[in-house]
Write a structure and sequence with these properties.
The chain has three domains: 100 residues, 3-Layer(aba) Sandwich (Rossmann fold); 68 residues, ATP-grasp fold, A domain (Dna Ligase, domain 1), CATH 3.30.1490; 241 residues, ATP-grasp fold, B domain (D-amino Acid Aminotransferase, Chain A, domain 1, 2-Layer Sandwich), CATH 3.30.470. The chain is globular and about 55 Å long. The chain is built from 15 helices and 23 strands. It is α+β, with helices and mostly antiparallel strands and 450 residues long.
Length: 450
């Protein structure tokens, strides 16, 4: 086991990883930007290093400074969390070159699955159904490929993630304009403006399967999550298990995900994402080669600590359970608490938290880096924390989440708890038959911009 790990992230996920390290008896090293000197993860770590200015490019995306901090601290491993460098193949390779373990899959696997077309080819070879589409090169060739895919279609960034670099195109006359916008956004977000086309499927559910794989060929699927409640491809509510999913389809999803992980010799925690239609036909969407934001719902229903297992696997441990040992107990729901005003076109908010009350009670969890007096910086994503509940039944879990959202108090910054309550109260959410259109429908009904 590692003696010391550097956490190359900030916010609630940095706090989450540091807590796991402490429970495992592993030293934790924090890195921080100039804007995060007073951040909670800095206080919780055993030691900390400033790695640059407030902007992400100068700090949390500064590979050289992070590697230098790890070497200075004599850290044996680097945990990237999610976002930032967590799916950066070059960073994973740099860690290896400098003799520091990257707590995640191999650089080559990240590169292969990070290129969305390459990932689709790999999954097709593994026997998974994939959404029709193809590569988009410049000009007339791109338009010709779009015609082959057929309208409506989605233009997507090959190096994409987090909902960026995506455009819905409903007709050929709009294609070139949306192509240019998507390419520019992709270049700005990922440093790569290359795109591909994908047939637009609607209505669909967004279902993902959590996997764990060690270095010795052992793979387990730890249940599925329904992530269909999202706005502009950004998830807001996740739950496990997925409601209204037949056991037959659930078994097929697990078998497909395990087969895919075995085919690419995957290791560490990872998530295989699918789109599923009303007839439970599912299609591979993408693979996230990192810890997901929504990993706590899987932990709540399986009792498996995903962060600890990431660390153990990177240290050479073997999974001490198999697929037959995985059982889903009850239902867990996660709501992302964001610093934004949902009913003012999701206007972002920053400022000092002058009052904080965190909900409590049995099986209520709030993963956050916010504390009383904390100044929410304007430089990073809007997430303030993740509210997670567990109950024996889905109906009880929905009621528990509503109660917890009502109890949550964060004063000083705007946040979206009331908006999340409105989603949970929609009839289609309550009966579990919602799809990825739930938020756009809800906002249109309320007369708001989607």
């Amino acid at each position: 086991m590692f003696k010391k790990i550097l956490v190359a992230n900030r916010g609630e996920i940095a706090v989450r990883v540091i807590r796991a390290c402490k429970e495992m008896g592993v030293g934790a090293v924090a890195v921080f930007s100039e804007a995060d000197r007073e951040a909670l993860h800095v206080s919780l770590a055993d030691e900390s290093y400033c790695i640059g200015g407030a902007l992400s490019k100068d700090s949390y995306l500064n590979m050289e400074n992070i590697i230098s901090a790890a070497i200075a601290a004599r850290a044996e491993g680097i945990h990237p969390g999610y976002g930032f460098l967590s799916e950066n193949a070059r960073f994973a390779a740099m860690c290896r070159e400098h003799g520091v373990a990257f707590i995640g899959p191999e650089a080559e696997t990240i590169a292969r699955m990070g290129d969305k077309l390459s990932a689709k080819r790999a999954m097709k070879e593994a026997g998974l159904p994939v959404i029709p589409g193809g590569d988009l090169s410049d000009g007339a060739e791109a338009a010709a490929e779009a015609e082959k895919t057929g309208y409506p279609l989605l233009i997507k960034a090959r190096a994409g993630g987090g909902g960026r670099g995506i455009r819905l195109v409903k007709s050929a006359d709009l294609f070139l304009r949306e192509y240019r916008y998507a390419s520019l956004e992709a270049a700005n977000a990922f440093g790569d403006g290359s795109l591909y086309a994908e047939k637009y499927l609607s209505p669909v559910k967004h279902i993902e399967v959590q996997i764990l794989a060690d270095n010795y060929g052992n793979v387990a699927a730890l249940g599925e999550r329904d992530c269909s409640a999202q706005r502009k491809n950004q998830k807001l509510i996740e739950e496990s298990p997925a409601a209204a999913l037949s056991e037959k389809t659930r078994r097929r999803l697990y078998a497909a995900s395990i087969s895919a992980a075995e085919k690419i010799n995957y290791r560490s925690a990872g998530t295989i994402e699918f789109l599923m239609d009303a007839h439970e036909n599912f299609y591979f969407l993408e693979m996230n080669t990192r810890l997901q934001v929504e990993h706590p719902v899987t932990e709540m229903v399986t009792g498996v600590d995903l962060v600890k297992w990431q660390i153990r696997i990177a240290a050479g441990a073997t999974l001490d359970f198999s697929q037959k040992d995985v059982t889903l107990n009850g239902c867990a729901i996660e709501c992302r608490i964001n610093a934004e005003d949902a009913y003012q076109n999701f206007k972002p908010s920053a400022g000092r938290v002058n009052m904080l009350h965190i909900p409590g009670g049995p099986w209520v969890r709030f993963d956050t880096a916010v504390y009383h007096g904390y100044a929410v910086p304007p430089f990073y994503d809007s997430n303030l924390g993740k509210l997670i509940v567990w109950a024996k039944t889905r109906d009880e879990a929905v009621r528990k989440m509503k109660a917890a959202l009502c109890e949550l108090i964060i004063e000083g910054v705007a946040h979206n708890a009331d908006f999340l309550l409105d989603i949970l109260s929609r009839p289609e959410f309550e009966n579990g038959n919602y799809d990825t259109n739930i938020l756009s429908t809800m906002l249109k009904d309320a007369g708001h911009d989607i």
